[in-house]
Amino acid sequence: MTTISVNTERKSTKLATVSYLSLAVLFGLGGCGEAQQAAPANTVAPEAVAKEETSTKNTLDLWPALTPAITKDAELEANITALLNNMTVEQKVAQMIQPEIRDITVEDMRKYGFGSYLNGGGAYPNNDKHATPADWIALAESLYQASVDDSVDGINIPTMWGTDAVHGHNNVIGATLFPHNIGLGAANNPKLIEQIAAITAKEVMVTGIDWVFAPTVAVVRDDRWGRSYEGYSEDPTIVRDYSFAIVEGLQGAVSGDFLSDQRVLSTVKHFLGDGGTEKGIDQGDNIASEQMLVDVHAQGYVGGLNAGAQSVMASFNSWHGVKNHGNKYLLTDVLKDRMGFDGFVVGDWNGHGQIPGCTNESCAQAANAGLDIFMVPTAAWKPLFENTVAQVNSGEISQARLDDAVSRILRVKFRAGLFDKPSPANRPLSGKTELIGHASHREVARQAVRESLVLLKNNQNILPLSPKLTVLVAGDAADNIGKQSGGWTITWQGTDNKNADFPGATSIYAGIEQVVKQAGGQTLLSPTGELSAQQKPDVAIVVFGEEPYAEGNGDIDNLEYQRGDKRDLALLKQLKAQGIPVVSVFISGRPMWVNAEFNASDAFVAAWLPGSEGQGIADVLFTDVDGKVQHDFVGKLSFSWPATPQQTTVNVPLPTESAEIKAQYQPLIPFGYGLTYQSKASDAVVLDHLSEDNLAAEQTLADLPLFERAVKSPWSMYIATRAERQGLSSSVAQNSALTIRTMDRVVQEDARFVSFNGSEQGVVGLISNFPRDFRAYSNSDSALSLSIKSTTSLQKPLWLGMACEGDCRQQVDIAQQVNSKLGEWQSLSFSLACFARAPMDFGKITMPFYLATEAKGDISFSDVVIQAQPSDNTIQCKE
């Protein structure tokens, strides 16, 4: 066994946030592409070089100099050196390549010996969403055995499997699903977080997996960001302390059972500043000062590295225009040299390919900047491997940089005991399927739900409720485990799931029903709030909120809830009009502007995304049968609540910020707020009779994305012929007229490719189960736009259309425009007036977009948007 030396003088997570320093800030160091290529020596004056070195040193002084949590072990380092000396360039590069399970075979692993591999969100063994733990173990075992088979590649270094277990082992059917990070932040309980992480580690290890891509330690600054719910808080102190706790929970304490057979490798992500991009745009640009980068965005790494994190994931975002995957200053000078990180840096999903001058298949810049493992899903892994080998052989990537990257990978594998542990199928927890969703695990998740709830309003102390009442449970999230769990739940976006996909889980309604039934009360489930004349509830609990989303698919342009479609508000008002007291339970991945919903509620609970244990909500809302409080509210806002739809960047000021900045902090509800059953009326923020004006005067009508990266809620994609229509539940589908599949245009799966066979009319489009009101757009000068490409000349019309309730529809032939630029992407925009002829009813749109043709041809499309302000080349369709 290899020994590991522990540094007993490591810093505690209870470090004070790094103080501001009045030093000059230097931007743009590191860089990529052309900016990373040195000029000829005779063009740079010696004094300029000296000045640059001094500036770099000064800016590095801003960053904390951390003492590594694990002291280097001489025996381990000697093992690394001996192994390196016996490896070829090809074998070393293979350690840096991380493909995805959908894109490699066991024979690929045997031939190349990849250092690691992953399953992305929505990827499963055998491409089966309902793959059993035995299926996961079988794949882990077969790929492991291939990696240590030296009959082809001549070396037997064990591979390792990484997975996105971000709120439990969320890709596996039946796993315990904890509240997403935003809810855990409201609980502000690091000990609970450590327990959650330890449970997650166990459930992951049951399936033979070694490594999880968690925790996310983003400090969210703009709540429009689609990953806001992955952040614990807008306060870097909470994020720092949680990072320490979750890393210890996953990996074990460095002075305890560090990376034992009960633990997995963790990944602190995403380095750096992903929560601070301009306008909250996912994968966008962070223009914070270097001091702010340290004081806000780096604090999660202070906590995680002090806990002994062995892996850090690079971020998609840029800092001042430089992509982090190619930023040597951040990855090497700051993280590895200044902060003392001696584990490895792994990339995000083809993030290296976003560096200017790079592609998914070739990126020496990323390796030279300090990226140690390329996360390279899709078939791009093979040319990337070949190109990286060639770049090492040519000297574009130095042998020293290659050896450093591989040394880091091997160091982590030795520390994790992968050279000594049994194979995945034979490890102590492997195959113990009773641990997946174990009752004790679910009880901890239920506790986390209780502690994450934040009581924002409780007029006349309507809460807690007696369980002896007749309780109406309404809202489309009441009995919907997928919606209450949010994104990163079985599927990447958390969509296309049914309650049956969550064995052992409990919906919010089911939890309420159990409590009320046991006390002799009665529950009435009606998602729409409709009741018979004989039914008269004493109170209504309405559970509503955001539809599931993940990553950039959740980006929005302001924080107004159900903008332009206030169906949940209508439900609340409908119940209030009947004299029924209303308790609102709001499901969301961020604070949102819900003034009207506040006004229509007697009590309002921010429940965030509670996960699989919905009964935790009933635990808090109801007393026991004797009228005693079972569990009080303890959650406090870890995000400030907006006063307007446009107040998207309201954040509690740091202690060191100026009095002027502190005076500008004016949210509707402040950070740290949360009522309890002991609160007095004077403790409450007054939420009665709030302004319900949507402040339209402050913001013009905004674009309405329908399909941008992914289908936007509440729409779903369908394909049809004249005889049948079917919804899509996978990335590939077909009918008698066409085949459709996802494709990558700019980012992962952001476009669709459709092959029409010409045998009959085929249709692809977007549809909703209920009509949407587009009158605001039809009454203005708005347009339907899309990006489209055809590789073949269409000999028959290609119809672009919209449809409304009652099967009314209008369409225009766009074949001429598409044929004008064969093989090229082009943006087309058509005024909504093109579709305004009778019987079109823009107040009841059910299909905002479809393409239909009888022609034979291959068509790709993306970025379908209702444009509030059409472009100059918008086609008006004037007769």
| N-to-C CA distance | 82 Å
The secondary-structure class comes to alpha/beta
Q: Measured on Cα atoms, how large is the radius of gyration?
A: 28 Å
Q: Note the total helix count.
A: 24
Tally the beta strands.
Answer: 33
Strand fraction band? Answer: 15-25%
Tell me the overall shape: globular
User: Could you describe the largest sheet, including whether it forms a barrel?
Assistant: 8 strands, antiparallel
Percent of residues in helical segments? 25-40%
Low-confidence stretches: 1-54
Mean pLDDT: 91
Can you describe this structure?
With 879 residues, the chain is of the alpha/beta class. The protein is 26% helix and 17% strand. The protein is built from 24 helices and 33 strands. The chain is globular, with a radius of gyration of 28 Å. Residues 1-54 have low confidence and may be disordered.
Could you give a short description of this structure?
The protein has 879 residues and is of the alpha/beta class. Helices cover 26% and strands 17% of the residues. It contains 24 helices and 33 strands.
Topology:
Layout (H helix, E strand, L loop, with lengths): L4 E2 L39 H15 L9 E2 L2 H12 L3 H7 L1 E2 L7 H7 L3 E4 L13 H15 L2 H4 L6 E4 L17 H7 L2 H17 L4 E2 L23 H16 L16 E4 L13 E2 L3 H8 L1 H8 L4 E4 L3 E2 L2 E2 L4 H11 L5 E3 L17 H6 L4 E2 L5 H14 L4 H17 L23 H14 L1 E5 L11 E5 L6 H5 L22 H12 L2 E4 L13 E7 L21 H11 L4 E6 L7 H5 L3 E6 L6 H7 L37 H5 L40 E5 L1 E2 L4 E5 L4 E3 L4 E3 L3 E6 L7 E7 L4 E6 L7 H4 L4 E8 L7 E7 L3 E6 L1 H5 L6 E6 L13 E9 L2 E12 L12
Parallel strand pairs: 3-13, 4-5, 5-6, 7-9, 8-10, 9-12, 15-16, 15-17, 17-18, 18-19
Antiparallel strand pairs: 1-2, 10-11, 14-19, 20-21, 20-33, 22-23, 22-27, 24-25, 25-26, 26-33, 27-32, 28-31, 28-33, 29-30, 29-32
Helix pairs in contact: 2-15, 3-14, 3-15, 4-5, 7-16, 8-9, 8-16, 9-11, 16-21, 18-21
